[in-house]
Each structure stands twice: as structure tokens, then as C-alpha cells.
Protein 1
Amino acid sequence: MKIYNSLTQRVEEFVPNEPGKVSMYTCGPTVYHFAHIGNLRTYIMEDVLEKTLRYADYDVKRVMNITDVGHLSSDADTGEDKMIKGAKREHKTVMEIAKFYTDAFFSDMAKLNIKMPDVVEPATNCIDEFIKMISALLEKGFAYKAGENIYFDTSKLKSYYVFGNQSEEELMVGVRDDVTEDTNKKNKNDFVLWFTKSKFEDQALKWDSPWGVGYPGWHIECSCISMKHLGEKMDIHCGGVDNMFPHHTNEIAQSESFLGHRWCNYWFHVHHLNDQTGKMSKSKGEFLTVSLLEKKGYNPVAYRLFCLQSHYRKPLMFSFEALDQAEGTYKKLINRIASVKAEGSTDEAALKEWKNKFVEAVGNDINTSMGITLLYDVLKSDLNGATKRAIIADYDKVLSLDLIKAADASAPADEHANDDPELVAYVEGKIAERKAAKKEKNFELADAIRAELLEKGIVIEDTREGVKWKKA
Ligand SMILES: [Zn+2]
């Protein structure tokens, strides 16, 4: 397999530390709000990476943290505390907010067919580990106390900008987010390991530490949680491109200073989801969540397909028109698979041959669109029905588009063949009207259309595969 490594800025042959085994770490969500579909693009592509490794017979252990403490609105330790902000907005405690949005995140993952990592660890579980690592960094001279907080001293490093792509503009932290720079810092890029004297008097979560009662900075958690479960050497660390700086840069700084050796070999970064105005989660307008897509009548799996159609290292342009197209493609694909009858016996040699093709295609820096092309090649091939279905089911271990399940559940094309054509045209027209109403969030009209159909003895049902109808 080959993957692009942000550390070397090249596509490299993937060689794990231990043959056949892969240790993989994912930066998890800060659970103060619903996840934006732009952030979920990152989790979808990381899921494909993990599943491709498994498909290529690697034994993968994947760990993800949940940030439930210490993340300020600017990644560089300034601005508001995200968790406190969420709690205030909803008149709940910080722990209630964390629980609610952690569950919401898991539910989004399930809807997008993202596998749960082997280990999911909330930051608040690991305070002792954070304190141990910070103490060691102080002892080794990589950290200092100032204004009663503990900071990492970036001037002690041989090199700090490990990803080599820092522009001055990105470093103008104080200017960019319109917040005041922390005057305790000795160097511009030093970062907080432990807050004791904080400007947040109402910080709900506090722990005893050798430096007084306080709470951890954001970056420390990923270093500690990954080492706790994956040891001192790790193969792949994943995240979104916006995690590269300062978050991943700081993770490497503190981890390698603590360990005294190289920590993680491959860094995998997924690019932004954009719209006409720029990075979506930062732009104004509707806050796009999986639930909102569902309310508008979309199948979340169609959003997954939309993501898989393009490469993870390119920004992806989102629009509802583009999502409509992906959903249309999905429906056509499912219909084509539904037309494949499970005839003949599975040709095991062909199954193996097509598996190798898939590993070669998708294993080349997670080229998901090539994987989808192969799916069509299977459908077009001369293989018998049983073999085609077996290969498609196999590919779906990585693509996770419910291909066989949706095809088997989809109604045969001639389901309403014996109904009065006039009635069919009328009902389908109404279903289209209702879909348009839903898209415009006119739920009243959508409900009225459903009621109108019911009055005429037609029951409609929303399913993952689309709207179905029958006579009551
Ligand atoms: Zn992280």
C-alpha cells in the first residue's frame, strides 16, 4: 500500500513498525456541538483508510479520543472554552453537554457507516497520564511555569515546523482570530500544557495537580491517549488538514521531547469540504449536520458516496445540487446491483483476482473513486451473478455503502406495474412535490401532501432507499 505522508510531503510505500500490524490514531471530536458534515468527511475518509488496511489483511488497532475538556475556540489556547460555551448556550452542565454530543457523534458515525474505533477514550479519563507527561516535560526542561500555567517551550526544539508548510499568515494567531495573545508565553508558538490560573473562573472541570487545581491544555490529550493504548511508536496519525497546525505540530513537539525518539511515522490529513464562499463549517448560513440532510430527505449513505467520489487530498466542493447528483448515482448503482441475480456458484479465483485489483487501486493513496470505477467494471464483466454479488459484497467491506443490503431491499422496478398508470403518475408526482417541500424545509406542506395521499388510500413510507408507497 501507498499513502501520502504529510511529514515528507510525498506518497510513500507504507511500512508498519511491526510486520502485518498497524497502530492508528484519530483526533476525535470536541463534543460541544453537533458535528458538521465537513468534519465528518474527515472521519469517513479515515474509516476508508482503516478498512482498506484491514482489507489488505493488516491487523489494525485504532484509537480515538473525545475532547471533553480544555479546547478553546482558537486552537492556539486563546478565545472561549468550547465546552463552557456549549453548556451556557444550552443551560446544561459541561458533562451533560459532553454526553449528549458524544452520543450524537456516535449516531452520525453509525448513519454514515463509519466503524467505531477499537478504543474511544474521553480526555477526562486520563488526567493522571497528562500530569505524568507534563511533569516529565518539566523535568527534561521542555516546559516552564509562567503566570501559574505550564507551557511547552518550543525554543528547546531542533525543529518545530515539522510539516514544513507554515506561512506567516497562519502564524498570526493573535491577529487572525481577533483575540489577545497570551503574554506569559516566552515564544510565540509555546502552548499551554496545564491551565492553573485561567481566565475562566467558571471552569466546571478541575483537577488537583502538582501545580495547583486546574485543567489540561488541548494538545496533551492526544499524545497521552495514543501512548496509553498504542505504545511509544505509532504507525499512522490521522486528522483534518486544519489539525496540522498547531495541533499536530504540538503533539509531535511534546511527544518526541517526552520520548526522546521518533513517535509516529505517517501523518494522514483529509482536506476541507468547501462551498462557494470557502470552508463550510466556518461560513455562515445553515449549519449542515447529518440530521439536517435526513430532514431534507437525503440518505446519509449518499453523502458518504459523495465523499468517496473525490480524493481526500483535494478540497471537496459541496452543494445540494452535487449531493442530488450523488444520490441519483447511488440509486442507479443500487438498481443495477439489484438486477444482478445470484445465479451460478461463486468463482473463488475471480474473487481473489478482483480483490487484488481493489487493493492495488484503493491502496494507492486511498483512491476511492478508482474503487467505485472497479465496482462498475465488476457489473459490466462477464462474471456470473453469484460471483458479481460476492465481489460487490467484498468491496463494500471498505466502501460501506450498504450495496447488497440496499439492492436486496429495493423494490423491484415493476412493483407498481399492475397498478393504474394514471394513479402511479399521480402518486409519484405527489412524492416528488413532497420531496421538494422537504428540501425547502416546508414540513407543513410535506405533511399535507402525505395526508392528501392517505385520504386517497395511499400510504407512503420513508426508507433509506427512498420513498415507497402502497395502497392502504
Ligand atoms: Zn489530536
Note: Residues 87 and 97 are 6 Å apart (CA to CA).
Protein 2
Amino acid sequence: MDAGKAASVIRERNSETVMSQFQPGELVLLTSQKGKTWLVRAGAGSFSSHLGTVDLRDVVGREEGEFLETTQGAKVFLFRPSLGDYIHKLKRRTQVIYPKDIGAFLVYGDIRPGDVVLESGVGSGALTLALLRAVGPTGRVVSLEIRPEFAELAKKNIEVFFGKSPNNHTLVVGDITASPLALQADRVVLDLPEPWKAVEAVSACLRTGGLLVSLSPQVGQVQLVCQELKRHGYANVTTFELLKRNWKIDPRRARPEDRMIGHTGFITVAKKIACTSEEVPTIRDPEAPVPS
Ligand SMILES: C[S@@+](CC[C@H](N)C(=O)[O-])C[C@H]1O[C@@H](n2cnc3c(N)ncnc32)[C@H](O)[C@@H]1O
């Protein structure tokens, strides 16, 4: 094989060598021409849908974006699942954070390669996947989950996506509201039913200047968490929600789809300041009207 050909089939990702051609056992997102998707593994058995059957051995050796023809003559395209694709397909026993909100965690939480992130709860592991990818091989995600069965499910979901148990992950079965962990984190991310109960313990682990991000579906939960954050020395405590509305676009129409997911959760972001809880200053909302 000449050097040009070798460069086209092997590339580096996160310091790992990745073959561009599908390998036996790899996850493949079969995608119909109308955009319907199925998650399968390359290499063994067959897959049948209303479009007919494909032999999954035929996936091995193909490149992403190529297609197989079903027994009924339909084309199914071959892709590796994106993180967003996988989150929609993973096995879940809890509510998971939607990709639109995960994006906000990563950007507003400023989660970077090399960061140490403390996460709780883990649930089905959707957010954990994105955190692991964002911190990369030089960072670390420490995840606490109180229910062993959810921790086990998340572990499996993570292993399936990455093809192995990632070296940058520590998954602990435990209660985040109990005594603080011996850990200094750059970031804390919370997706808990009672996040305000975790603020004291996680604040002891978060470095000064570090960011905390929390998601809650109910505004009463948000009020309690904001109150606790202000008591424990945080500035810039900001809460928002994100609405994602898909559109139908074709030559005859361009308009929003009839249905959307109207509500997922409120996201709160806060920055840890340098003071003890006794010294916490009264923090004025920068957008509140100035008293005359
Ligand atoms: C909504 S789920 C998290 C979903 C997850 N973020 C995802 O994207 O898949 C909330 C999780 O918090 C866990 N949990 C609740 N209280 C906890 C506590 N005190 N300590 C640790 N985990 C807790 C629950 O068992 C549940 O798995």
C-alpha cells in the first residue's frame, strides 16, 4: 500500500489510531434515504427493517458515507454514530440530558481538555459521554451515582460508545450529598433531583474560580439551588432554558415542525469565588434596576 493510500485509511483521534474503514464489531448507524436510523454492529448477522434485509458482514471494510443495498433494493447509508445519535439510541432507565442541553453544559460550563470534572448523578451516562470527550485523555471525570444499577448501566453505555472503558473516568457508587470527596475539581456538573443538598459537599471540592453547572426540570428546584449557591460563595449565578425547534424545509414549504419537545430543564451556571461561607458578600444581580 502506498503512503497516500495509508493516509486515507488511518487517522489519529484523541491520540488513538482509528481506521476509517468499518472494523468487525464496530457500531454502525444505518441510515435510510428518508433519515430513519438504526444502530447495529458491523460484522455478524443480518438486519431487517421495512426496507428489507442487509448482511452486516458487508459493512466491514466499507467507508463512512458508503451504502448497502437491501434485499428490496433500498439504499442504507453507513455512518459511525455521532454523540447526539448515540444519546438518542442508548439504553436508558433514567431521564437523560438532551444534546441541546449537553452543548450548553460544555460551553457555558467552559469544560476544556485537561479539566477535572466532578459529576453527579450519572443516570444512563449521556452527559458523562460528552464530558469524557471534552476533557480528553489529559483530563478526568469523576462521577458519583447513588444507585448501583444505574452506575452499571452507564458503565455499559460508555463502554459501548468508546469501545472500551475510558482511562480518564472514575465511576463511584455513592451519595454526593455526603462528606466531600478528596478531590480538587475545575468544574462540577449536577443532574440531581435535589441538587441544593449537594452544594455544600461539592463546593468543598471545587477550586476557586471553577464553574458549577446544574440542570433541573422544575423552577422550584432552581430557586433552592440558587439560594444554596449564593450561601456558599458563588458569583454570576445565571439560569436559562433552551428551546430547540426543528423546521421542515423542502421546495414547497419552510416552516417549523408541528411538534417539539417544549421543555427539558433549566440550566444554572455559577462561578466559585474566593471566600468562606461566613464571608459571602451580598451579590447584586447585575441586571437588576439600580435603586434611585
Ligand atoms: C436524571 S438522572 C441523571 C441523568 C444523566 N445526567 C444522563 O444524562 O444520563 C439523575 C440521577 O441522579 C442520581 N442521584 C439521585 N440522588 C443522588 C445522590 N444523592 N448522589 C448521587 N446520585 C444521585 C439518581 O439515581 C439518577 O441516576
Note: The chain has two domains: 3-81, 85-279.
Protein 3
Amino acid sequence: MEVTRGDVIRRGSEAVVHAGTWEDMKVVIKTRISKGYRHPSIDLQLRSERTRHEARMLRAARDHVWTPRIIDIDLKEHTIMMEMIEGPVVRDLVLEITDGNLDVRPDGGRDQISAIGRSIGAGLAKLHAGGLAHGDPTTSNMIYHDGEVWFIDLSLGSRGADIEEKAVDLRLLREAVESTHPGTTLFDDAIDGYLSTSPDGDAVVEHIERIDSRGRYRRRPAV
Ligand SMILES: Nc1ncnc2c1ncn2[C@@H]1O[C@H](COP(=O)(O)OP(=O)(O)O)[C@@H](O)[C@H]1O
Ligand SMILES: [Mg+2]
């Protein structure tokens, strides 16, 4: 098996992502890196477990949404090799649409944002219907390819997700949109897409408010 490692796409706190090629195919190799503050044997164990978990989640998600195919996983090297999905991360695409183009485009990019938001929501609804929670649904963990939103980075995801975990996914999306794409309709559009796709969407969306009010209650100063 001929694998060539190319440029670093991203160096995060937990993992380094390389572009590469395998046979004739463009691939991405994600390697979990050592955290110096952990005991060496615990560090090795955690990296293997998290690599295995992420690969399992990506495989499980593939039954429900667009997600890269896994080509190989190496628990000793803590790597996952997967197909490269060509296209911008949704974060960059949305920033490009909203950045300074509002005067140029007749609709200010609203229709495009709305279509992307609806795809995000529909995708999360399908994941949730399959019992999966994404765990980190930021717009950097979605790639826009061929008119579809692809989901990556399910390392914090879970299976057997209950209504709480589904609502938490939507809250995380809301936080990500508020901080990265403030002033856009992206989150509301995602909720529209979610509601029109999910069989129990209403209950999940209502549950967001329950979690919100719990948070407000907790933040009240003690008297
Ligand atoms: N399969 C893939 N195809 C194309 N780009 C990818 C792929 N997987 C990851 N990337 C790129 O690498 C970045 C980091 O990958 P990610 O899995 O989110 O790692 P991290 O855990 O560091 O956030 C992504 O935001 C994306 O730009
Ligand atoms: Mg990520």
C-alpha cells in the first residue's frame, strides 16, 4: 500500500491533519498527538481509544449522512486515513458569502446561506434519527462538496443519543453560529431543515429551551 504524506492541513491541539495520496486517491491522514502532561501509558491508551472511537463514529454516520470513507486506521500510530473531501469547510464558505458581498449580491447571499443552513439541519436530523449525536457541530467540522454538506470530526460524538444529547448538538451549533457567523440566519435555517427532516424534531427543539432555562437557573447568584 503506497501512502504519501503531503502538507499539513491543520495542526490542532489534539490532532495533526495531513493531506496525502494513497494509490491514485487524495486522502487525509489524521494523527492524534501526544499530550505531554499525561502519563505516557495513559497517553498511548487514550490516543488509541479516541482514534478507534472517531473511526467508529465516522463509519456509523456514513449510513445517515455524507461523511468521508475510512481507508485505514492504525491504532499504534493513532492515525485515521480517509478520503479527502474537496471543497471549503462550511465556515470559510459562509464567511466568504457574508464578507463584504452584501451589497454586491441581489439577495445578499441570503438564499445561499439559507440552503446551507437547511442542509446542516437536515444532516443533523438524519444523524439523530440514526441514534447518533455529532458532539462538535461547528462549521469547521462540515465540508461543502458537490452541493452537499459533509460531516467530519465526530470524535466527540456518541451513539444511542437521547433527546438531551440531540438538543445539546443543536445548542452547540447555535453557539458556533453566534460566534463565527453572527447576524446570519444560518441557525434558524438549520432549525427549519431539522424540523422538516426529523420525526421528533419538535420535541428536540423544545428541549433546547429547557436546557437554556436550566442554565439561567444555575447562573443565578446564591442568596
Ligand atoms: N476528510 C477530509 N477531507 C478534507 N478535509 C478534511 C478532512 N478531514 C479533515 N479535514 C480538514 O482538516 C481540518 C481538521 O480536521 P478535524 O477532523 O476537524 O480535526 P480537529 O479534531 O483538529 O478539529 C478540518 O477542519 C478540515 O479542514
Ligand atoms: Mg474539527
Note: Residues 3-83 form a domain with the Phosphorylase Kinase; domain 1 fold (CATH 3.30.200.20).
Protein 4
Amino acid sequence: MNKAKAAVSGRKSKGTAAKPVLRGKAKTAKAAPKPARPIQLFYWPTPNGRKISIALEELKVPYEVRLVDIGKGEQFVPDFLKISPNNRMPAIIDPDGPGGRPVSVFESGAILQYLGRKYGRFYPTDERARIQVEEWLFWQVGGLGPMAGQANHFNNYAPENLPYAKKRYTDEVHRLFGVMNRRLATRKFLAGAYSIADIAAWPWAVSAKKHVPFDEFPDLAAWVERVGSRPAVKRGFAVSEERRHPVTDAERKHLFGQRAR
Ligand SMILES: N[C@@H](CCC(=O)N[C@@H](CS)C(=O)NCC(=O)O)C(=O)O
């Protein structure tokens, strides 16, 4: 894993400067609030990684990007596996986790829920509203993401041409786009107000468009436009974008054919 700070959000800690303690008044002087320490985001510019860079930009909290070059196999480095045992990014370390102690979180859905709970945004506390957000969040994590991922694999990366596999996963993306389109025909966002469910689904819809164009799905297309026009979404999407490149043969060895080690 690239331990160096590969990129850092332009945001600075929001902490206030420490006030001088006046002699003789020490008892009444209040300790200055500790400045928020940046969240470390273990990241590579893919749809799953971008969910979290977008969420952090939306939340306007300080964060530092730690690049995990998955083409170089950095997802298998022991230090990374300690926080992400599934050898997948994204993951985060929040130095100011519950009880003021550091906490690490892996799995993009769990990270979005954690951030939503911690900062009280994009994840409603009203139970009925929360159920809807979770339905669409899990729909993305268990459906749209894996199906679009497989469509991408068989359409772009498989060493053999496998028409059945290509059709199977491209059809499934088509079906899921239809589900989104119906949902978005009567509302602006997937689950009431803009939420972590939209943040999760948006990078995957954008990525899967190359397999299933939006022509048949005008309400999905309008939502992609609506979410994509948010400045924080643009900033989050752009994080380390310059590192993307076509997968090389050397990178294939790390990415494909993985088995238990
Ligand atoms: N279910 C995981 C999936 C994460 C995932 O698949 N990440 C990919 C990139 S999009 C990865 O780290 N791949 C590394 C590898 O295949 O070894 C999540 O939602 O966080």
C-alpha cells in the first residue's frame, strides 16, 4: 500500500485556534475543542471508491486519500488487510471514532452508514425514511454493483469471448436500470431526499452506461444528470482520476483469478 499521502482534499481542519490560558483564571478557561483529525480514505478511482470520496466531499469533512493501487496488488498488503480483510477498497480509518478512539470500517455500504450516522446527514433518523434509504443502499451493494461489475468483466476483461456470460450480466444491468427508472419516474431521488443511497448508486449507473445506454431510461438519465451536477459529486468523482488507465497484463495477474491465500 502506498503509505505516502497520495492526495489530500483541499479542505482544512475546521478546529478553532487554541485560546491563551490567562494566569489566575485557569480554572474558568475552557479547553479549546480538538480540531477534527482527517479521516483516512483507502481508495482507488473506481465506482466503489468514488462512493466514499463523494460522500466525504458532500459532508465537507477533512480527509486524506491513501491510494491502494489494486493493479499493483496493494490490496493484499498485510497492513491493509488488517482494516479490510476482504482485500478490497474502499476502507476508512476515522481517528476520532466512537468514544474518541480510532475506528476502521470496510465495505462501502457500512462506510456510508457510518458517515451518515456520525455526521447526521444523508441518512435520516426517522425509521420509515431510514428503511427506504437502506433498501436502496443494499439494492445497490448487492445488486447493481455486482451485476454491473460482472458485465464489465465479461464485456471488457475476460480473455475468452463468452456470449452467454456477456448477455446474462448485460441483461441484468438492463433489468436493474429498469427498476431504477420506474422508481425515479415519480421522485427526484431513490429514497426521499438525496441520501447515501443515491451516493452509492450514482457511480455505478455512470460506469454501467457503457454496457446499457440510457436511451430507454429517461428518468434514470435525468437522475444521473441531477446528482452529477452537484459540485461535491464532481469533486468526489475527480479524486485521483488521473490514475485510471487501461488494465495491463501485469495488473490482470493481481486482479483476476484470485483464490483463497
Ligand atoms: N463490496 C465491496 C466491493 C469493493 C470492491 O469490489 N472493490 C474493488 C474495486 S471496485 C477492489 O478493491 N478490487 C480489488 C481486487 O479485485 O483485488 C464494497 O462495496 O466495498
Note: Strands lie at 7-8, 39-43, 63-67, 91-94, 103-106.
